[in-house]
Structures are given as C-alpha cells and as structure tokens.
Amino acid sequence: MHQRAANKANIISSELLASLTAEDVSPAEHSDTKTHISRPVIEGAVRVFETLLLIGFGTILWAFYLADFSAESILLFLPVAGFIGVTIPLLTQVNRLYETPAFLQFIRTAPRLAMIWAGVFTTVFVIVFFTKIGAEYSRMWLGGWAVGGFSAIFIFRASLFSFLKNSRIAEQLDRRAVLVGGGEPALNLIKSFEAAPARDVSIIGIFDDRGDDRSPVQVGPLKKLGTVDELVAFARQTRVDVLIVTLPLVAETRLLEVLKRLWVLPVDIRLSAYSQKLRYKSRAYSYIGNIPLLDVFDKPLSGWNALLKNIEDKVLASLALVLLSPVMALVALAVKLDSPGPVLFRQKRYGFNNELIEVFKFRSMYVEQSDAMASKLVTRNDPRVTRVGRFIRKTSLDELPQFFNVLRGELSLVGPRPHATHAKAKDNLYTDVVDGYFARHRVKPGITGWAQINGWRGETDTEEKIQRRVEHDLFYIENWSLLFDLYILAKTPFSLIETDNAY
Fold first, then answer.
1. CATH says 2-34+174-299 is which class?
2. Among the listed residues 295, 263, 269, the one whose alpha carbon sits nearest the alpha carbon of residue 280
3. pLDDT, tens digit, for every residue of 296-354?
4. In what residue span(s) does the Bacterial sugar transferase domain sit (predicted)?
C-alpha cells in the first residue's frame, strides 16, 4: 500500500515539476548525491584562515621588525599575541561575522569587523602603555599589526565577496526552503524574510493538504505547489535544504501527522517560531536571517561531518581495494569456473534519499535463475545459489565489489545496508512492515553497518527481523561519529564468523 502511494506521489510530482515554469521553481541537483557547496565548511575554512592570518601577521612583523628571538622576547610576545589571537576571532564569532550572510553583505559588515579590531587593539594599547610593562613593547609593532592585519583581512573579505557574487557558488550557498502550510502564517513569514536585512534563504514554494477554500493557491509571490505527500516526492527530484512548517503549535494532531510523513527526508525541518508568544531555550531554536525557527530534525550528516565521512570512505575504500585485490581476483576466477555467466551481478537498490543505485556483487546464482528484483528471498539450501555462491554469500565475499560503489559515491563503508526495491519480510514489502522505513535512507547506505555487526543480517523471514534492522539503522544515523564508524569497521570481520542467517 505504501509502495503504491509512493509511486503515485512520484508520478504526481514529476507532472508537477514538468508543469512549473522557471519562475515557479528551478529544479536543482540532489544536495548530497552531487557536488554541493557546504556552508559550514566554507564558514569554518574562513574562520581558520583568518585566525591564522591574524596570528601569522603579528608573528612575522615581530620577527622582521624586532628581530629578537631570545627567550625573554618570546615570553613578552606570547601573552599579547595570545590575547589578540583569541579575542578577535571570538568577538567575530559572537557577532555572527563568520556566517555566510556576512560574507555576502561585506559592505554592511566591514564596519562592524573594523570596530572589533579597533576595540581589541585599543584595549591592548591601554593595558600595555598605561602600566609598567609599556616600555617593553613596541608601539610600531602593535600599530603595524593592527593596521596591516586588518588590511589583510579586509582584502581577503573583499576578494571573497567578489568571488561569491560573481560565481554560481552564491546560488548554492542559499538554502532552498519550502513552506509546509499556507494562509496568513505563511504570508507573515514570507514578508518577514523579505524585510530581513540578511536573506540567505530562497523560498521555492508552498505545500498544504488543505483545500483552496482554506489555503489560497497564491500566497504573496509564491504558489501552492501541492500536498504534503507530493512534497515528499518533490524533495526527491529537486534540491530542498530546509522545510519550514508554519502550522500552529496548537494543531498538535495535524502537526504530528505532517511531521511523521516528512521526517524520512534528508533535510533540515524547522517549526516556525515567528509570532508565537512563547520563549524557547537557545538550544531549541535557530535562526535563518533574523527569523527564529524551532529545530525539529537536523540533517544527519552535513558540513564538516559529511566531509569527514566522505574522506573516510574514499581513503579506506581505496586502501581496501589495493589490499584485497588478490582475494577479489581469486573469487572472480572461482565464480567464472563454477558456472557460465558474468562474474559481476548488478542489482537496483535504494540509495540516499530513495535514489535508485546499481550495486555491484560477485554473482552467486545461476544466470538463468538470478532475481534482480529480489522478489524471492534466498533461503537455506536455495537451488538458485551456485556452489561458490554459497561460500561467498556466507563469508560476505560477494560484497567486495561494492568498494567500487563507495568510490563512485553511491555507498559508504558504514551505513544502513541497501535493500532491493522489492525486498520482503515474509510476503510483505519492507515499507509495509516498518513505519518510517525510508528514514534509513537519510544517509548513504553502507557495505557494513550497526545492524550487521549485531547479528541482524541475512534472511528476513519474519517481520521482527526487518523491524530490528531498521531500529539499529536509525540508532546509527542519530548517533554517528567517526569513532562509531571505526568501531563498526573493526567489529565487522568478527561478525562474519556468525553465518547462521547468511545463505
């Protein structure tokens, strides 16, 4: 039933996209399956670069101007350099000048940055030269550091501003938002975004389940594009970064029902806190521009975490292919000699955000009996499995070609295992058995995972088995860390010893 509903929504959304003009919404690439500029990565890189530039400029000026490298001189330098090197970045962070809108509004934010520098260096001058230690420091050094250092930062910020404004990167830095719920709350929110001085979000449309009599077709400059079910399919065909739910918090039943359908998407979901007469803890809400929004779900992997996991995948997968190439060659030879047909088997499976990917495996079945759709699960002593196939399935050697999928960016080393499109528990599709099943697709699937090392691998002849697998998958997604990945990778070889469920 859920599969039919999803297919219907996909068809509707495809028709919806085809009917929209460029002014309505511009479809974009998936934000994670294709190269997409990450705001946190750029902001973090600017923060690190400017801090190094600040400290480096003062250090070089000290070395070349004073040319005194004695221990006494260094002990005088370190406290002042440490104070300036910590205070300026900290105040810049507090004033939100390391955020993308500040880069894109350089002309407005440059005076604030100048005031921070002037304030910090003035404080240092007052402390140093109105105390007994003033004679130990060079006014030329501190003055040169203040003027020269700020000039370097100013030139860097101006160059960054020019680069972002004159390239397509600025378009990717804008968060593409969809409003869930129309009417007056949506209109008020749109007006607030338009009036905000720092606009770093592009609202591309509105989705609402209510009829046109309760939810207008047009809200300000934006059209209502469809229902919430159509939004789920829509977000899988065009880049959506954040969903902003404008429903009133008092509509608890409706709100929970909507969130239940939306949380399977790999996007940030926010409840609009604008115009609500409530006070929230700072950790409960965030800002887009100057608009407060309730945080409901966060994208599981983004910014530095996504970059770190991508590096982990590429480096370790490359290393694994080099080390395991003799084993893979022997398995390929055994498959070829055991039965006629290709060495590799390709199967369509669900990937990140329900995207269909082609997963590689060593062929373990007779060609004429292969089941590309996985309509029938492999069971113990299954006659479709070859002699070599039985061994490589039990030992998971048939999965080794999936390291190539990792290098292609379709899989991760660690993540929920990718399931075939028609995989079933007993006679029911996984989507019909597990509520919120597609939430496991908020990250890339993996070669191994938390469920696998805990014994949840192999045949799913009962509904409990797939339910427990999904529970483990969701736990992994919500608790991801690099150390967690490394722990799972270290445990994987030992988990392969237990082969009772693998046929």
1. alpha beta
2. 295
3. 778 888 888 899 999 999 999 999 999 999 999 999 999 999 888 899 999 899 899 98
4. 309-497
